[in-house]
Amino acid sequence: MALYELYAHPVERGYRAGLCSKAALFLLLAAALTYIPPLLVAFRSHGFWLKRSSYEEQPTVRFQHQVLLVALLGSEPGGFLAWSTFPAFNRLQEGHLRVPLVSAREEDRNQDGKMDMLHFKLELPLQSTEQVLGVQLILTFSYQLHRMSTFVMQSMAFLQSSFAVPGSQLHVNGDLRLQQKQPLGYRGLDVRYNVSVINGTSPFASDYDLTRIVAAYQERNVTTILTDPSPIWLVGRAAEAPFVVNAVIRYPVEVISYPFC
Ligand SMILES: *[C@@H]1O[C@H](CO)[C@@H](O)[C@H](O)[C@H]1NC(C)=O
Ligand SMILES: *[C@@H]1O[C@H](CO)[C@@H](O)[C@H](O)[C@H]1NC(C)=O
Ligand SMILES: *[C@@H]1O[C@H](CO)[C@@H](O)[C@H](O)[C@H]1NC(C)=O
Q: What is the pTM of this model?
């Protein structure tokens, strides 16, 4: 005779043990493993789907006290005066060499241990017949980021300004901004660009050519540039007065992009 299922009801079976038993420990562990690892993965990967993100950091910037100056003169065609902190460059200038008075001071405004700005002043002595129509100036910096990856680079602020009338002073007030063509790593040490912007040991004139220096610099994926929307050119120089470059360069907080792997 065939049998049919006429009625069914579930049976609950309970297991009893003390809270300090192995079974209780196992249950606790299983519960923890269910919830905590996914949270950690989500947290450590900073989001599952993002490919690139960014963070803010104030860089650690120090002026390296390296200067290269070219002042374009108006009195004779092609006339210029030049000076740098590199002896080899100065030797190459011969009659065009003119040594200025330079002072530089970095300031940590909020006392957080990181410099916030550079006050740079350069006074170039001139003869009364000499007239400055333009200035090209390179200042170099050591630039470091520490928050995600440790990024160390030597970078520059390139300043170029020229006007139609002879000047007495040039005032610059700008930011040293980070330029990224490529996201930075989120950990590790990156010293790719910890190379000097100007090869100060080279005896060759070509190594001090501004076109070449700027071209080599622009090859980099990470650089700094000086952004000053409006340098101020003052005219009316007294006969014996020097030409003065006055620059305030700020080191602002940057938004740095980095990839997710
Ligand atoms: C610069 O960035 C490009 C594109 O992201 C990359 O292919 C290249 O390897 C980078 N160069 C260096 C020196 O890191
Ligand atoms: C960067 O370069 C400078 C000068 O060459 C050197 O003193 C410094 O140790 C370098 N920093 C790193 C982290 O490699
Ligand atoms: C600097 O120039 C000298 C002489 O030309 C050369 O030996 C040296 O490798 C150069 N250094 C760099 C970092 O390019």
A: 0.80
